[in-house]
């Protein structure tokens, strides 16, 4: 008998926070709006009541100092989660994230680790324009010393949040508000999804679609529709951007010989470009056609809904890309 | 205030350890044997020593680009420091950090970094950690007058005051932000006044008077431990050497831009000579004891440098060690 326990993505994150804070007193949540459903959805619900203001710390609008505080607390032995309800504002904190946290372990000869989670929420659409819409994972993934995870399912959201908190090193956990309503099986137990492992969402022979976060959600739907056209696509959900699960990508590309990458970031110098490079370096002779990237155009996010429609890649864009690599 | 002789001698010895260690680097820097950028602490010793002597081993300290003195004063090993500056595998950061990344978590030296003001918020975090754990630890952030130009300092003042964190903002005002005289980069208002709008207790202290530094530090550590932090202290001081390297702003080029009479005026306020004179004038130490202390420190410095020079350099095969992503 299998009892399914369906939970939305946002509550899966909430459950991860409840459980890790329960298990270890060193875990605390800090950031703007942790008291406010308006900021962080229902991801922080019940935490303040259960764990108190010492461990659920709402903060002034001071991203640099507050993020640095989380880093410093981690160096001093705590396991903080610093949340940025809009990842755009996290740019104010690039010094503690990049200069300090990412480098700390290496530049101090391995004498101090920084077990902090930088949780950045992509909160886009709705005519919010360029400073309320950005997907910046490519920026963070470029930096040695930062792990970057982007779950696309509720199951992974919980398991990767737990794994990120319990990791000895800084992890940038990026979620997308467009996924908050996605529901799937989320066991009540305390479990981790390993960082650095991608997942095959659908096996296939004809083409490999590599995607992450919301684009992985779209890629699965696209692959289902492609079945009707007689196309058997393999869908790989990266789950972790860095360290990249190269082996899985390469094996799949060698099998299918065709590659589509669907990433919610910008095209140039981005995740999709990196994946193309990895696949071409390791599987060039197996490739039957040029790969196609499905990404944002290299354009800041516009406000107007008509432009947003042209801006954000869709399920149909993924289908079109697959048809192109197969033609 | 009277202090046990043991404390007085330990203040003196620690200042001498820093001074003689720093001065031992001058020739190796000029000869190109030490290449990591060294921001020498000579002249400012009383600050690190006075504060760290008032702390316990468990208290946490974050330094900056000029932190050889903070590292030693907090209890870091001189051998590990020397080896780091000579970029050896036996250094406190295994030769991966160099002069500007000094750490020894076992004695509460949680690290140092040259991004100006970059470690202030880290110290806020260490203080936040102790307020969550309620473990009574105090955190100290050492930064220079140049850091008062960075916005994160003001965010940190507000946040730490809001949360009443056990944190000492230790601003070492040596009157220059790299090449810039303070009057050219700050409004002419005492730095410690920046604490006022945040209702943070503030002090201005002669940073070349180790006893004054020590006594004020004892007081503010108590304030922090009893839940009435944070505290801001501005220490008036002067670096005897260049911003980086012995006497210049570009290590090894002899181009100190500071007025000669200003430098000479401050050399007369040498915190070590002043303290030695105080101890002798008050009959607390005699020339023979002083000579012995200096001899011992001299030997320790020599042994530390020897240790460094005899330590292995990092193997190139280990380039990627400690990289996890």
Description:
- The complex is a heterodimer of chains A (327) and B (325).
- Chain A is α/β, with parallel strands linked by helices.
- Chain A folds into two domains: 6-185, 3-Layer(aba) Sandwich (Rossmann fold); 199-326, 3-Layer(aba) Sandwich (Rossmann fold).
- In chain A, 39% of the residues lie in helices and 20% in strands.
- Chain A contains twelve helices and 14 strands.
- Chain A has helices at 9-23, 37-40, 47-51, 63-75, 94-107, 137-141, 154-166, 213-228, 246-256, 271-283, 305-311, 315-326; strands spanning 6-8, 27-31, 56-58, 79-84, 117-122, 147-149, 171-176, 183-185, 199-202, 207-211, 233-237, 240-242, 259-266, 292-296.
- In chain A, strands 3-2-4-5-7-6-12 form a seven-stranded mixed sheet, sandwiched between helices.
- In chain A, helix 5 links the parallel strand 4 and strand 5.
- Chain A is globular, with a radius of gyration of 19 Å.
- Chain A starts with 5 loop residues before the first strand and ends with a helix.
- The model of chain A has no long low-confidence stretch (mean pLDDT 97).
- Chain B has 325 residues and is α/β, with parallel strands linked by helices.
- Chain B has one domain: Thiamin diphosphate (ThDP)-binding fold, Pyr/PP domains (Rossmann fold, 3-Layer(aba) Sandwich), CATH 3.40.50.970.
- Chain B has helices at 5-24, 26-30, 45-54, 68-73, 78-85, 120-133, 151-162, 182-185, 210-225, 260-267, 271-281, 287-309, and strands spanning 60-62, 109-111, 139-144, 167-173, 176-177, 180-181, 201-206, 231-236.
- A six-stranded parallel sheet of chain B has the order 2-1-3-4-8-7, with helices on both faces. In chain B, strands 5-6 form a two-stranded antiparallel sheet.
- In chain B, strand 5 and strand 6 form a beta hairpin.
- The longest helix of chain B is centred in the last third of the chain and has 23 residues, at 287-309.
- In chain B, 54% of the residues are buried.
- The mean pLDDT of chain B is 96.
- At the A-B interface, helix 4 and helix 5 of A face helix 6 and helix 7 of B.
